[in-house]
Amino acid sequence: MKIDYPGLLVEPLPSGRTRYRVRPEGDRKKRIRIFCGPDHDDFMRQYLAARRGEQPKKLETASDHAKPRSIAWLATSYFEYLEARVKAGTSSAKTLKKKRNLLNRLLVRPDRKMLIPQEKLIEMQDEMGATPAQADAFVEAVGVMYDWAIKRRYLQTNPARGIARIYAKGSGATPWKAADVRAYFKRHKPGSKAHVAMSVLLWTGCRIEDLTVLGRAYECEIDGIEALRWTPLKRGSSEVAIPLLEPLKAATRAPKVQGNTYVLGRGGRPYASGDSMSSMFKRWCRDAGMAHLSAHGVRKGLAELLAELGCSQYAIMAILGHSEAKTSEVYTRRVERWRLARSAIAMVEAAEAWQ
Q1: How far is CA 259 from the centre of its chain?
Q2: DSSP E strands: which ranges in the chain?
Q3: For a Cys staple, 11 with which of 17, 19, 150, 247, CB 3.0–4.6 Å?
């Protein structure tokens, strides 16, 4: 709902930005500058002060203390933009944390000019050569930040674009096999947190971050069948609704301490983040003698098994919460190639039999 604020003047500037000024009550000639619009938390304080005829102080942020037009000013301004998006629910806190971790290295030289030469970015990428995936992620994050700056006319060029990647992507997480699952359950018995975590991953196909929220509150009944229904935390995921299988139900009821989530951390509280849950699951894997495996490998193994059992691409999408067919196609394509290869070999064998 749009609200009209008496005396508020919204003035577009040639730069593309917007200036806000307020006429004090009873004085139509005076104009007092305020520093944010109605969508900002500090707007009402500034607006009311200006209506009283007072010049409000600007709410200071990190970018206010950075050298104007420096790389520190640009990076902190970008962080503040992302923080506002997280607060509005249009971006995730995980994305903000990842961007901070990647871009904070730009603040080592806060007086550096806003536009970093491309050769300097390549040099920084080379310095991170021991972790090539991280190096490429850094360059990509810088590129996204500069794209954001160009849209706001802070810059005209993006030196991060055109830099070659140095990381050669592999096949990803190792899929779990049936023998791996048996070995894991031999080490982690029913009732343990490790057993519950694996059971939820195995019988739902959820991602590791979903273990921080999934619990009995998501259980329901669909067409007379006990089920689990939830929307995965990963942005863009589709809702998942699957039967609550008996092995999962038994595993989640086995622990003596029950709580809001199936997998509980210290003090019976849910894990604070997907990262903390992932670290703990990795520890459970090491305890079971399989340090090379991870939580994501459980989901990947399930996807491959479903494809091998003949599940369609769209059935796998429904189970794993994929919103795009191309994601599930990774698994169905491999299996289909194998089937076609077997069919082709059979034809060759048949042809040889007629010779």
Answers
A1: 26
A2: 8-12, 18-22, 32-34, 219-222, 225-230, 240-243
A3: 19
180 Cβ partners below 8 Å, 6+ apart?
Answer: 290, 293, 301
φ/ψ (deg, to 5) at 71: -65, -30
Does the pLDDT of residue 353 top 90, yes or no?
no
Mean pLDDT along residues 101-116? 84
Which residue, chain included where needed, has tokens 């005829």? 53
* Total-model pTM: 0.56
Our CA dihedral for 235, 240, 245, 251, rounded to 10 degrees, sits at 20
Tell me the pairing of strands 240-243 and 219-222. unpaired
Domains, in order of start, for the chain: 8-59 (no CATH), 63-151 (no CATH), 178-337 (1.10.443.10)
Nearest to 175 by CA among 306, 333, 319: 306
Burial of 83 (0-12, 13-18, 19+ CB in 10 A): middle
Asked if 285 and 197 touch (Cβ cutoff 8 Å), the reply is no
The dihedral sign for the CA sequence 48, 50, 51, 54: positive
pLDDT digits (tens, 9 = 90+) for 229-283: 888 888 777 788 888 888 889 999 999 999 999 999 888 889 988 888 999 999 9
7-49 pLDDT, tens digit each? 999 999 887 888 999 999 888 889 999 988 887 778 888 998 9
258-261 contacts, C-beta under 8 A, 24 or more apart: 259/215, 260/215, 260/217, 261/211, 261/212, 261/213, 261/214, 261/215
